[in-house]
Amino acid sequence: MLLYTLDLGLTPYDDAWALQKRAAAARISGALDEDLLILVQHPPVVTLGRSTKPAHLLATPQYLEAQGIQLRDVERGGDVTVHEPGQLVAYPIIVLKRHRKDLHWYLRQVEGAVMHGLAMLGLETSRVAGLTGVWREDADGRRKLASIGVHARDWVTWHGVALNVENDLRTFDHTVPCGIDGVTMSTVARECANAELPVPAFVDVQRALIAGMAAVFALTPTPLAPSHPPAW
Question: Which of 38, 73, 155, 188 could form a disulfide with 96 if both were Cys (CB 3.0 to 4.6 A apart)?
Fold first, then answer.
C-alpha cells in the first residue's frame, strides 16, 4: 500500500483546507486510490477547533486581522491552534478502515510518527498522559513541539499535525495553545541546539516526518508532483 505525498510549500490556509476536503471526498469515493499526506507551511493563522473555549483566544479578531493573522473556525477536534511559517504542517488523508477504525488509536499513531521521525534526527521526544501531542522533557521542564487535531468522515481522516521546526512562535502569544494553561511551546531547531545536536534543515525534518508516517502505517511513500496533482 502506498502513501502519496504532496508538498505544497508555503500555501494559504484556506487553499490547503479546501484541498484536504476534496482529497477526503475523493478517498471516500475511491477516486483517490491510496492514502495521502499533504505537507505545507502556512502564513500566520489561528484555527479554532470544536473544543475551543473563548478564553483561550487572547486577542480579538480585529486585532489579529490588523497583525496580518487569519482566524478560522474549523471542523477538527481539539482547541485553539497556531500555524506560521517555519512550522511543518502535515495533513494525512487516511482510510482507517484499511488500518484500524479507532480515532484514539489514530491519534497515538500520528504522535508515534512524529516521534519516530524526530528520533531519526537524534532528538528524543515523548507523549504526556492525557494530553495529545509530542513533547520534549528534560531537567529544564516540559516543552511542546507538535500539536495534533483531526477530523474524520466515513473513517477517512483530514486535518492533522503541526510540528514547530524553525518558526519564531510569536503567533502563539495570542492564544492559550491547545487550551493547556502554562504550556511552553518550542521548536525542533531550539531543542536540537539546546541538546547540542546538529540543527536539521527544514527539508530534512520533512523527510523524517514522511518516513515516520510511512513506518507507523506500514505504507510506502510515493511523491506526487505539486504541479500535476490528481484532479480531485
Answer: 155
Instruction: Report d(CA 26, CA 22) in Å as an integer.
Output: 6
Q: How many CA atoms lie within 13 A of 80 on its CB side?
A: 23
Query: How many Å apart are CA 200 and CA 207, to the nearest integer?
Result: 11
Contact in structure between 200 and 188 (CB atoms under 8 Å) = yes
Radius of gyration of the chain (CA): 17
Beta partners for residue 137, in sequence order: 142
In the chain, the domains with their CATH numbers are 2-224 (3.30.930.10)
Neighbours of 103 (CB within 10 A): 15
pLDDT along the chain (232 residues), means of 10: 97 97 96 97 97 95 98 96 98 98 98 98 96 93 96 98 98 93 94 97 98 98 80 68
Short-list 121, 116, 104, 172, CA closest to 144? 172
